[in-house]
């Protein structure tokens, strides 16, 4: 029983922080307000300027894009007025890519649900058996492993961004022909993802990771010290 408890608690220490981080990033990056804020605070060209549409139509296209990714969209496309002409905003290749992302998001939600269910026994056993010292010791090791993986990915991205992004898309989308590489002249969707958007995404993800790591590390340190004081008294 002790080994089972240790295994469940260890899994919880690995899974729960990752779930919290991924959930925070998903909620932020799939929120239209994330794109609205960037567009309104960005000192460079606005979405509506690069796309020759009204801000209202640009935001409608963003809403459609994110609803499609989240699997909430029932419409085939959205029509906007571009240079005085009413026409569909997204082309076929853009829509196919959005549907591919939606499928991956759907699978990711299922994996997250399974992972959460797996981690529940560890949380319950920690509370019931008062095994607070075990997760306190396990968490720093799990977080260190996560930090190393993130650091390696960051170094690869910094050294060769195109290789990293290409490998990412081939891994998750199976695009051997690089069909995900959009042309700004023909694919309007790429204008919603300037470099500043990716910078903000990275800053948010890193901030969440650091804040989460700090909070859990402090909790772990307090738990370990409390356990040591208790053992000394006994």
Span of the ends, CA to CA: 25 Å
Q: SSE order in H/E notation?
A: HHHHEEHHHH
Number of DSSP strands? 2
Helix content, binned percent: over 70%
Largest sheet: 2 strands, antiparallel
Radius of gyration: 22 Å
> What would the principal axes of the Cα set say about the shape?
elongated
Q: Kindly report the spatial arrangement of strands forming the biggest sheet.
A: 1-2
> Given the structure, what is the number of helices?
8
- Residue-averaged pLDDT, rounded? 80
Sequence stretches where pLDDT stays below 50 over 5 or more residues: none
- Give the tally of structural domains: 1
Oligomer: single chain
Which structural class best describes the helix and strand composition?
A: mainly alpha
Beta percentage is under 5%
Layout of strands and helices, then pairs:
Blueprint: H1 2-29, H2 32-41, H3 47-51, H4 55-69, E1 79-82, E2 85-88, H5 92-128, H6 133-159, H7 161-173, H8 195-233
Antiparallel strand pairs: 1-2
Describe the protein.
The chain has one domain (2-233). It is 74% helix and 3% strand. The chain contains eight helices and two strands. The chain has helices spanning 2-29, 32-41, 47-51, 55-69, 92-128, 133-159, 161-173, 195-233; strands at residues 79-82, 85-88. Helix 1 packs antiparallel against helix 5 and helix 6 packs antiparallel against helix 8 (195-233). The two termini are 25 Å apart.
